Amino acid sequence: MAQVSLKDDLTVPGTTIIVDETTEVTGNDNFKLVPTPSTHPDDPLNWSPARKWLQLFCLILWVLAGTFANGSLYPIYDVLSSKTGLTLAEINSGVGYLYLFQQIFSLITQPLAIAIGKRPVFLATCAGLCIFPFTLSQVHNNSQWIGG
Length: 148
Prior knowledge:
This protein has 148 residues and is mostly helical. The chain has a domain at 73-147. Helix content is 60%, strand content 0%. The protein is built from six helices and no strands. The protein has helices at 6-9, 49-71, 77-84, 88-116, 118-136, 142-147. Helix 4 (88-116) packs antiparallel against helix 5. It is elongated and about 75 Å long. The N and C termini lie far apart (58 Å).
């Protein structure tokens, strides 16, 4: 069997060798950080521990808010069915489409956030989540439910 070196394994575009194995250095001196950290105070590597914990808390809060908003629709199924005339099967199908398109949309928003920045994508997503409750009140048939 032919032996493959580490450099041959990393021929995928965008990969970088971060451990320099060509020199005999002890400790952490043989690591290269990619990208190289800056001295700017907004660089996450330069944040204080309190700011890092605040960022983590806000991220968890955002995920929980989105999850609870989308995952807690089932208590209103009966009321929604009586107000709109939709059957429970149609409502359940609409929620299934919601989860499906949520995942498909993440395949679009993640590369978009890398390309244009996280803030515009975050703000557009917030605006979309704010519009959802208002579209729910205007549902009168199955196509509007699935579209909303």
